[in-house]
């Protein structure tokens, strides 16, 4: 053995080298293969937090003081977390030169709403008192919808949020059905049979809104699964939508019934006319069987439906109060036509402009709560609320936003229908949800635990109007490889 011969110690590891190379071949030790922590997953896919916002709406918050300036719910806290997360991600992307925050049209439209409410707050009788209203409207109609828009990047994100809407609706629908069947709901027509879910008698409209959102989400997911050739999934979603009809019926919410019917009709007509006709026949047959055959809420539902068409003759007290509140809002606007009286100022001007027959409040009871009289603090019409509190400046900004979302989403659905893409049903869900919200605003305004869901709907509609469902949104999100 010479000095040029390799020593024995150098030869021993040679047979092991191929084994080491073999173990390292399938890069399992790379950073992508490591287990992802919760924060990392959230940063990579913030739509998970958006879905959590939806589900947290179902958390009971107990009896609330409706006269308080601010109500903070778990869903509100989560929505602000979503705003912070998406704002940080978008700012990081812009700082790294990867694009703009949101599409220019979206920035202009949402910015117009912000300017309108700011002008109304500054011009109000007491700007400090209008501050809470300014913050609330900014949260609901600007910040959270923009955060939703930033959190949606592809079909998976969209399906996740729609699935959360469906999950929340199934939870609330199950609770509401039990309340009706066991007589433990809110007071209605001499009994305690009105389904209100986990929201209590002080927020009787909340459950019907959540169930309506879920029904429309299920419809869109069923259409998407049908277009993708997944019949079992389509059947499952269709059955879920059908199961939500009963709790929606026993919520006895006329506004939700009208809005849901209009939304389903628009979504199906834009997606498939023949399917819309078949759906109408099926719905009619199901209503006959459930109400006429099984008697599920038959007398009460029939009476409630008939009241919709007889409000011009001898309306019930709640309807006459609503008409008087609309008249009050119109009179307030006539005295303050440009900038209105300011956010949260409607109650301070109500009595000076209201008809003499307007009630002092509405009675609530049941669902675990005693009798209470809730004051009428808004006109129960979002458009008249904006008109009276923000004048023509605010209403113009809101109208521009709503019309842009409506026509933009409808245009996208028609494109999907022409191209027969996989995400056609998801577009139908977006136009259905937005239609429901715009119709419901004719009979209601923001307020209550489910207010944050209005932001979710506007964010989903913004995704449909300003981006293409099924493709990556042009908002330059942080790529997964670059996310912390």
Automatic annotation (TrEMBL):
Example of a GO MF term: ligase activity
Limits of the O-antigen ligase-related domain: 244-398
One Pfam entry name: Wzy_C
InterPro entries in alphabetical order: O-antigen_ligase-rel_domated, WaaL-like
Region (Disordered): 1-33
Transmembrane feature ranges: 68-90, 102-122, 134-152, 159-181, 201-222, 234-250, 256-273, 280-301, 391-410, 422-439, 445-466
Keyword Acetylation: no
Subcellular location: Membrane
UniProt membrane topology term: Multi-pass membrane protein
UniProt keyword Transmembrane, yes or no: yes
Organism superkingdom: Bacteria
UniProtKB keywords: Ligase, Membrane, Transmembrane, Transmembrane helix
PANTHER family: LIPOPOLYSACCHARIDE BIOSYNTHESIS PROTEIN PA4999-RELATED, TEICHURONIC ACID BIOSYNTHESIS PROTEIN TUAE
Name of the molecule in the record: O-antigen ligase family protein
Organism whose genome encodes this protein: Streptacidiphilus alkalitolerans
């Amino acid at each position: 053995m010479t000095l040029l011969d390799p020593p024995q110690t150098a030869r021993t590891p040679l047979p092991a080298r191929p084994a080491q190379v073999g173990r390292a071949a399938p890069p399992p030790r790379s950073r992508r293969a490591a287990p992802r922590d919760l924060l990392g997953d959230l940063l990579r896919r913030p739509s998970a937090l958006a879905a959590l916002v939806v589900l947290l709406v179902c958390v009971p918050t107990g009896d609330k003081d409706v006269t308080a300036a601010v109500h903070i719910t778990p869903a509100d806290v989560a929505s602000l977390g979503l705003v912070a997360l998406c704002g940080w991600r978008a700012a990081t992307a812009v700082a790294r030169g990867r694009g703009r925050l949101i599409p220019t049209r979206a920035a202009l439209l949402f910015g117009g709403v912000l300017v309108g409410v700011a002008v109304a707050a500054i011009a109000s009788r007491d700007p400090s008192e209008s501050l809470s209203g300014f913050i609330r409207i900014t949260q609901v109609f600007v910040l959270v919808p923009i955060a939703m828009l930033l959190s949606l990047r592809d079909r998976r994100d969209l399906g996740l949020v729609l699935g959360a809407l469906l999950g929340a609706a199934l939870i609330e629908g199950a609770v509401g059905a039990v309340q009706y069947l066991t007589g433990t709901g809110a007071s209605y027509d001499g009994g305690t049979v009105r389904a209100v879910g986990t929201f209590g008698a002080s927020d009787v409209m909340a459950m019907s809104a959540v169930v309506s959102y879920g029904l429309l989400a299920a419809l869109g997911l069923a259409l998407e699964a049908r277009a993708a050739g997944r019949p079992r999934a389509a059947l499952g979603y269709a059955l879920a939508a059908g199961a939500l009809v009963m709790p929606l019926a026993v919520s006895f919410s006329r506004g939700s019934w009208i809005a849901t019917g209009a939304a389903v009709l628009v979504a199906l007509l834009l997606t498939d006319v023949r399917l819309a006709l078949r759906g109408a026949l099926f719905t009619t047959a199901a209503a006959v069987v459930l109400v006429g055959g099984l008697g599920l809420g038959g007398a009460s539902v029939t009476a409630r439906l008939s009241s919709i068409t007889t409000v011009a003759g001898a309306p019930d007290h709640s309807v006459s109060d609503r008409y008087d509140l609309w008249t009050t809002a119109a009179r307030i606007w006539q005295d303050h036509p440009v900038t209105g009286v300011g956010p949260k100022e409607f109650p301070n001007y109500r009595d000076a402009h209201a008809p003499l027959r307007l009630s002092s409040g509405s009675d609530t009871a049941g669902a675990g709560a005693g009798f209470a009289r809730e004051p009428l603090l808004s006109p129960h019409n979002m458009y008249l609320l904006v008109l009276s509190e923000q004048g023509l400046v605010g209403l113009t900004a809101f109208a521009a936003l709503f019309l842009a979302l409506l026509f933009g989403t409808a245009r996208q659905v028609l494109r999907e229908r022409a191209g027969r893409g996989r995400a056609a049903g998801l577009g139908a869900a977006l136009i259905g949800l937005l239609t429901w919200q715009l119709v419901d605003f004719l009979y209601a305004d923001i307020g209550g635990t489910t207010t944050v869901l209005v932001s979710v709907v506007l964010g989903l509609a913004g995704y449909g109007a300003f981006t293409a469902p099924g493709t990556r949104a042009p908002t330059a999100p942080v790529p997964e490889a670059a996310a912390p």
